[in-house]
Amino acid sequence: MTWLLLLGLVAIPGAAAEAPAAPEDHGFGTDPSFTFLPPTAVDTNAIPNMVLRAGDPVDAPLPVFRIAPDTWMFFGNIAEIDQYNRGWNGNAGFVVTPDGVVVIDALGTPKLGQRMIATIRSVTDKPIRYLIITHNHPDHSYGAIAFRRLGGVRIIAHAGTLDYLRSDKIETSVAYRRSFIPEDMVGFEGVEPDVLVAGERFSVYRFSLGGRKFEVYNVGKHHSFGDLVVYQVDQGVVWISDLAFNQRTTFMGDGNSRQAIEAQDWLLNKFSNARLMVPGHGSAQTPPFPMVTRTQSYIKRLREVMRRAIAEDVDLMSAVEQADFPDWRDTRLYELNQRANASFVYRELELEEF
Length: 354
Ligand SMILES: [Zn+2]
Prior knowledge:
30% of the residues lie in helices and 18% in strands. The chain is of the alpha/beta class and 354 residues long. It has a single domain (3-290), classed as Ribonuclease Z/Hydroxyacylglutathione hydrolase-like (Metallo-beta-lactamase, Chain A). It is globular. Residues 1-24 have low confidence and may be disordered. Bound molecules: zinc ion. Zinc ion (ZN) binds at residues 90, 137, 139-140, 242, 280-281.
Protein backbone atom coordinates (compact mmCIF):
# COMPACT_ATOMS: atom_id res chain seq x y z
CA MET A 1 0.00 0.00 0.00
CA THR A 2 2.73 2.39 0.93
CA TRP A 3 5.97 2.67 -0.89
CA LEU A 4 8.92 4.87 -0.97
CA LEU A 5 10.05 7.00 -3.84
CA LEU A 6 13.59 8.07 -3.34
CA LEU A 7 14.53 11.02 -5.43
CA GLY A 8 17.53 13.14 -5.83
CA LEU A 9 20.73 13.70 -4.07
CA VAL A 10 20.20 12.64 -0.51
CA ALA A 11 22.33 9.63 0.24
CA ILE A 12 20.64 6.83 2.13
CA PRO A 13 23.26 4.49 3.57
CA GLY A 14 22.83 0.74 3.23
CA ALA A 15 19.33 -0.63 2.94
CA ALA A 16 18.07 2.06 5.31
CA ALA A 17 16.13 -0.64 7.14
CA GLU A 18 17.18 0.19 10.66
CA ALA A 19 17.87 3.42 12.53
CA PRO A 20 21.27 3.55 14.16
CA ALA A 21 20.77 3.54 17.92
CA ALA A 22 22.06 7.03 18.53
CA PRO A 23 21.73 8.78 21.89
CA GLU A 24 20.10 11.66 20.01
CA ASP A 25 17.02 9.49 19.63
CA HIS A 26 15.74 11.07 22.83
CA GLY A 27 16.98 14.54 22.09
CA PHE A 28 15.77 17.36 19.96
CA GLY A 29 18.51 17.87 17.42
CA THR A 30 19.63 16.37 14.14
CA ASP A 31 22.71 14.13 14.29
CA PRO A 32 25.14 15.25 11.56
CA SER A 33 27.01 11.93 11.57
CA PHE A 34 24.44 9.90 9.62
CA THR A 35 21.49 10.20 7.28
CA PHE A 36 18.46 8.04 7.79
CA LEU A 37 15.00 7.90 6.31
CA PRO A 38 12.50 5.31 7.62
CA PRO A 39 11.29 2.81 5.00
CA THR A 40 7.74 4.11 5.38
CA ALA A 41 6.09 7.37 6.47
CA VAL A 42 2.96 5.63 7.80
CA ASP A 43 2.57 4.08 11.27
CA THR A 44 6.31 3.99 11.94
CA ASN A 45 8.24 4.61 15.14
CA ALA A 46 11.45 5.19 13.21
CA ILE A 47 12.67 8.77 13.19
CA PRO A 48 14.10 10.42 10.07
CA ASN A 49 17.51 12.02 10.40
CA MET A 50 17.96 13.93 7.16
CA VAL A 51 21.10 16.04 7.06
CA LEU A 52 20.96 18.95 4.62
CA ARG A 53 23.90 21.18 3.69
CA ALA A 54 24.16 24.89 3.06
CA GLY A 55 25.70 24.10 -0.33
CA ASP A 56 22.94 21.77 -1.55
CA PRO A 57 21.58 23.06 -4.87
CA VAL A 58 18.16 24.77 -4.71
CA ASP A 59 16.89 22.45 -7.44
CA ALA A 60 17.87 19.25 -5.63
CA PRO A 61 14.71 17.24 -4.93
CA LEU A 62 13.97 16.11 -1.39
CA PRO A 63 13.09 12.51 -0.61
CA VAL A 64 9.34 11.99 -0.65
CA PHE A 65 6.92 9.18 0.21
CA ARG A 66 3.92 8.17 -1.84
CA ILE A 67 1.17 7.66 0.76
CA ALA A 68 -1.83 7.29 -1.60
CA PRO A 69 -2.09 6.82 -5.38
CA ASP A 70 -2.04 10.57 -6.08
CA THR A 71 -0.55 11.82 -2.81
CA TRP A 72 3.04 12.41 -1.68
CA MET A 73 4.39 13.32 1.74
CA PHE A 74 7.63 15.00 2.85
CA PHE A 75 8.47 13.30 6.17
CA GLY A 76 10.52 15.89 8.04
CA ASN A 77 13.03 15.59 10.84
CA ILE A 78 11.50 15.35 14.29
CA ALA A 79 13.69 17.97 15.84
CA GLU A 80 14.08 21.61 16.67
CA ILE A 81 15.41 23.65 13.76
CA ASP A 82 19.21 23.39 13.59
CA GLN A 83 22.07 23.86 11.16
CA TYR A 84 21.89 20.20 10.08
CA ASN A 85 18.19 19.93 9.25
CA ARG A 86 18.29 23.54 8.00
CA GLY A 87 14.67 24.12 8.92
CA TRP A 88 13.30 20.84 7.61
CA ASN A 89 11.67 19.82 10.87
CA GLY A 90 8.08 19.39 9.77
CA ASN A 91 5.98 17.65 7.15
CA ALA A 92 4.37 18.85 3.94
CA GLY A 93 2.84 17.14 0.93
CA PHE A 94 1.19 17.39 -2.45
CA VAL A 95 -1.62 15.87 -4.49
CA VAL A 96 -1.33 15.39 -8.26
CA THR A 97 -4.66 15.73 -10.10
CA PRO A 98 -5.25 15.56 -13.87
CA ASP A 99 -5.44 19.39 -13.96
CA GLY A 100 -2.61 20.31 -11.65
CA VAL A 101 -1.03 19.99 -8.25
CA VAL A 102 -2.33 20.96 -4.81
CA VAL A 103 0.41 21.51 -2.22
CA ILE A 104 -0.13 21.33 1.53
CA ASP A 105 2.35 23.47 3.50
CA ALA A 106 5.58 24.97 2.26
CA LEU A 107 8.23 23.90 4.82
CA GLY A 108 10.53 26.24 6.70
CA THR A 109 12.68 28.30 4.31
CA PRO A 110 12.52 29.74 0.78
CA LYS A 111 15.14 27.16 -0.20
CA LEU A 112 13.05 24.27 1.11
CA GLY A 113 10.13 25.70 -0.87
CA GLN A 114 12.30 25.63 -3.99
CA ARG A 115 13.39 22.09 -3.27
CA MET A 116 9.75 21.07 -2.80
CA ILE A 117 9.03 22.50 -6.24
CA ALA A 118 11.97 20.54 -7.68
CA THR A 119 10.59 17.40 -6.07
CA ILE A 120 7.11 17.99 -7.50
CA ARG A 121 8.72 18.57 -10.91
CA SER A 122 10.44 15.19 -10.66
CA VAL A 123 7.07 13.49 -10.14
CA THR A 124 4.83 15.39 -12.57
CA ASP A 125 4.91 18.16 -15.15
CA LYS A 126 1.39 19.32 -14.20
CA PRO A 127 1.24 22.95 -13.09
CA ILE A 128 1.19 23.75 -9.39
CA ARG A 129 -2.20 25.39 -8.91
CA TYR A 130 -2.80 25.64 -5.16
CA LEU A 131 -0.77 25.97 -1.98
CA ILE A 132 -2.64 25.55 1.29
CA ILE A 133 -0.78 26.85 4.34
CA THR A 134 -2.14 25.14 7.45
CA HIS A 135 -0.84 27.84 9.82
CA ASN A 136 1.64 30.67 10.12
CA HIS A 137 4.43 28.89 12.05
CA PRO A 138 7.74 29.15 10.18
CA ASP A 139 8.28 25.41 9.72
CA HIS A 140 5.04 25.28 7.71
CA SER A 141 4.98 28.61 5.92
CA TYR A 142 8.36 30.21 5.25
CA GLY A 143 8.81 28.32 1.98
CA ALA A 144 5.66 29.95 0.55
CA ILE A 145 7.56 32.71 -1.24
CA ALA A 146 9.05 30.12 -3.62
CA PHE A 147 5.53 29.16 -4.73
CA ARG A 148 4.50 32.82 -5.02
CA ARG A 149 7.47 33.50 -7.34
CA LEU A 150 6.46 30.59 -9.58
CA GLY A 151 3.28 32.45 -10.53
CA GLY A 152 -0.12 30.87 -11.12
CA VAL A 153 -0.33 29.37 -7.63
CA ARG A 154 -3.40 30.27 -5.59
CA ILE A 155 -2.40 30.46 -1.93
CA ILE A 156 -5.01 29.54 0.68
CA ALA A 157 -4.46 30.28 4.37
CA HIS A 158 -6.29 31.09 7.57
CA ALA A 159 -7.32 34.73 7.96
CA GLY A 160 -5.13 34.85 11.08
CA THR A 161 -2.08 34.57 8.81
CA LEU A 162 -2.55 38.25 7.91
CA ASP A 163 -2.44 39.17 11.62
CA TYR A 164 0.81 37.25 11.90
CA LEU A 165 2.32 39.01 8.87
CA ARG A 166 1.47 42.36 10.50
CA SER A 167 2.69 41.40 13.97
CA ASP A 168 6.16 42.01 15.39
CA LYS A 169 6.53 38.25 15.90
CA ILE A 170 7.50 37.62 12.30
CA GLU A 171 10.51 39.92 12.47
CA THR A 172 11.97 38.13 15.50
CA SER A 173 11.26 34.75 13.98
CA VAL A 174 12.90 35.59 10.64
CA ALA A 175 15.93 37.12 12.36
CA TYR A 176 16.32 33.97 14.43
CA ARG A 177 16.33 31.75 11.33
CA ARG A 178 18.68 34.07 9.45
CA SER A 179 21.11 33.96 12.38
CA PHE A 180 22.08 30.36 11.74
CA ILE A 181 20.82 29.32 8.30
CA PRO A 182 21.25 32.59 6.37
CA GLU A 183 21.85 30.87 2.99
CA ASP A 184 18.50 29.09 3.19
CA MET A 185 16.61 32.26 4.10
CA VAL A 186 17.83 34.25 1.08
CA GLY A 187 14.89 35.87 -0.67
CA PHE A 188 12.49 35.46 2.24
CA GLU A 189 9.32 37.51 2.14
CA GLY A 190 6.06 37.13 4.00
CA VAL A 191 3.37 36.03 1.56
CA GLU A 192 -0.16 37.43 1.59
CA PRO A 193 -2.64 34.65 0.79
CA ASP A 194 -5.09 34.90 -2.12
CA VAL A 195 -7.86 33.10 -0.26
CA LEU A 196 -8.45 33.71 3.44
CA VAL A 197 -10.31 31.00 5.34
CA ALA A 198 -12.33 32.59 8.13
CA GLY A 199 -15.80 32.42 9.65
CA GLU A 200 -17.20 30.08 12.28
CA ARG A 201 -14.92 27.53 13.86
CA PHE A 202 -15.15 24.21 11.98
CA SER A 203 -16.66 25.90 8.91
CA VAL A 204 -15.35 24.71 5.57
CA TYR A 205 -13.96 26.15 2.33
CA ARG A 206 -14.36 23.74 -0.59
CA PHE A 207 -12.71 23.57 -3.98
CA SER A 208 -12.09 21.00 -6.71
CA LEU A 209 -9.25 20.46 -9.12
CA GLY A 210 -9.04 17.83 -11.82
CA GLY A 211 -12.14 16.12 -10.45
CA ARG A 212 -10.65 15.82 -6.94
CA LYS A 213 -12.46 17.45 -4.02
CA PHE A 214 -10.67 19.30 -1.26
CA GLU A 215 -12.15 20.61 2.00
CA VAL A 216 -10.28 23.17 4.08
CA TYR A 217 -11.57 23.51 7.65
CA ASN A 218 -11.07 26.48 9.93
CA VAL A 219 -10.21 24.84 13.25
CA GLY A 220 -9.77 28.08 15.19
CA LYS A 221 -6.62 29.36 16.86
CA HIS A 222 -5.63 26.37 18.93
CA HIS A 223 -1.94 26.40 17.98
CA SER A 224 -1.17 29.64 16.13
CA PHE A 225 -2.78 32.79 14.73
CA GLY A 226 -5.18 30.46 12.87
CA ASP A 227 -5.16 26.77 12.05
CA LEU A 228 -6.52 24.74 9.15
CA VAL A 229 -7.23 21.06 8.52
CA VAL A 230 -7.27 19.81 4.91
CA TYR A 231 -9.36 16.85 3.79
CA GLN A 232 -8.85 15.01 0.50
CA VAL A 233 -12.38 13.75 0.07
CA ASP A 234 -11.60 11.19 -2.64
CA GLN A 235 -8.63 9.59 -0.89
CA GLY A 236 -9.83 9.86 2.72
CA VAL A 237 -6.59 11.57 3.69
CA VAL A 238 -6.72 14.29 6.39
CA TRP A 239 -3.86 16.74 6.82
CA ILE A 240 -4.30 17.65 10.48
CA SER A 241 -1.33 20.01 10.78
CA ASP A 242 -0.32 20.58 14.43
CA LEU A 243 -3.65 19.53 15.92
CA ALA A 244 -1.78 16.41 17.00
CA PHE A 245 1.89 15.51 16.96
CA ASN A 246 3.26 12.05 16.33
CA GLN A 247 6.61 10.76 17.67
CA ARG A 248 7.23 14.01 19.56
CA THR A 249 6.01 16.29 22.32
CA THR A 250 3.69 19.08 21.28
CA PHE A 251 4.56 22.78 21.42
CA MET A 252 2.17 25.14 23.19
CA GLY A 253 3.54 28.63 22.86
CA ASP A 254 0.73 30.09 20.81
CA GLY A 255 -2.93 29.34 20.48
CA ASN A 256 -5.19 27.92 23.15
CA SER A 257 -5.12 24.58 24.93
CA ARG A 258 -8.86 24.40 25.60
CA GLN A 259 -9.54 25.03 21.90
CA ALA A 260 -7.03 22.33 21.02
CA ILE A 261 -8.90 19.75 23.11
CA GLU A 262 -12.21 20.75 21.51
CA ALA A 263 -10.74 20.60 18.02
CA GLN A 264 -9.24 17.16 18.66
CA ASP A 265 -12.66 15.87 19.74
CA TRP A 266 -14.13 17.39 16.58
CA LEU A 267 -11.41 15.83 14.42
CA LEU A 268 -11.84 12.29 15.76
CA ASN A 269 -15.59 12.53 15.46
CA LYS A 270 -15.68 14.14 12.01
CA PHE A 271 -13.06 11.93 10.39
CA SER A 272 -13.60 8.61 12.15
CA ASN A 273 -13.87 7.00 8.70
CA ALA A 274 -10.77 8.61 7.23
CA ARG A 275 -8.09 6.33 5.84
CA LEU A 276 -5.05 8.30 6.91
CA MET A 277 -4.13 11.33 9.01
CA VAL A 278 -0.95 13.26 8.27
CA PRO A 279 0.29 15.42 11.16
CA GLY A 280 2.58 18.44 10.86
CA HIS A 281 5.27 16.47 12.70
CA GLY A 282 5.88 12.74 12.80
CA SER A 283 4.66 9.85 10.70
CA ALA A 284 1.22 9.61 9.14
CA GLN A 285 -1.20 7.29 10.88
CA THR A 286 -4.05 4.91 10.13
CA PRO A 287 -7.23 4.58 12.27
CA PRO A 288 -7.94 4.83 15.13
CA PHE A 289 -5.33 7.67 15.07
CA PRO A 290 -3.75 7.15 18.52
CA MET A 291 -1.54 10.26 18.08
CA VAL A 292 -4.63 12.45 18.47
CA THR A 293 -5.68 10.81 21.72
CA ARG A 294 -2.11 10.83 23.01
CA THR A 295 -1.55 14.52 22.25
CA GLN A 296 -4.91 15.33 23.79
CA SER A 297 -4.19 13.37 26.97
CA TYR A 298 -0.89 15.25 27.33
CA ILE A 299 -2.67 18.60 27.08
CA LYS A 300 -5.44 17.56 29.47
CA ARG A 301 -2.90 16.30 31.98
CA LEU A 302 -0.88 19.50 31.83
CA ARG A 303 -4.04 21.54 32.38
CA GLU A 304 -4.98 19.38 35.39
CA VAL A 305 -1.57 19.63 36.99
CA MET A 306 -1.38 23.38 36.50
CA ARG A 307 -4.96 23.95 37.64
CA ARG A 308 -4.19 22.11 40.87
CA ALA A 309 -1.03 24.17 41.34
CA ILE A 310 -2.97 27.43 40.93
CA ALA A 311 -5.67 26.22 43.35
CA GLU A 312 -2.95 25.46 45.89
CA ASP A 313 -1.35 28.89 45.39
CA VAL A 314 1.84 27.41 43.96
CA ASP A 315 3.72 30.13 42.07
CA LEU A 316 4.54 29.83 38.36
CA MET A 317 8.21 28.85 38.77
CA SER A 318 7.51 26.10 41.30
CA ALA A 319 4.52 24.82 39.35
CA VAL A 320 6.66 24.48 36.22
CA GLU A 321 9.32 22.63 38.26
CA GLN A 322 6.69 20.17 39.47
CA ALA A 323 5.19 19.52 36.04
CA ASP A 324 7.41 16.62 35.04
CA PHE A 325 5.90 13.66 33.17
CA PRO A 326 8.49 10.87 33.48
CA ASP A 327 6.63 8.69 30.99
CA TRP A 328 7.06 11.40 28.35
CA ARG A 329 10.79 11.91 28.85
CA ASP A 330 11.67 9.53 26.02
CA THR A 331 9.43 11.36 23.57
CA ARG A 332 11.29 13.72 21.30
CA LEU A 333 11.40 17.42 22.20
CA TYR A 334 10.09 16.75 25.71
CA GLU A 335 13.13 18.28 27.38
CA LEU A 336 12.90 21.32 25.12
CA ASN A 337 9.15 21.96 25.34
CA GLN A 338 7.83 20.66 28.66
CA ARG A 339 8.70 23.66 30.82
CA ALA A 340 7.59 26.16 28.19
CA ASN A 341 4.31 24.28 27.71
CA ALA A 342 3.72 24.14 31.47
CA SER A 343 4.38 27.84 31.83
CA PHE A 344 2.08 28.67 28.90
CA VAL A 345 -0.78 26.61 30.34
CA TYR A 346 -0.33 28.09 33.83
CA ARG A 347 -0.71 31.62 32.48
CA GLU A 348 -3.60 30.55 30.28
CA LEU A 349 -5.47 29.05 33.24
CA GLU A 350 -4.86 32.16 35.34
CA LEU A 351 -6.64 34.17 32.64
CA GLU A 352 -9.43 31.58 32.34
CA GLU A 353 -10.10 31.93 36.09
CA PHE A 354 -11.01 35.59 35.65
ZN1 LIG B 1 4.64 22.70 13.33
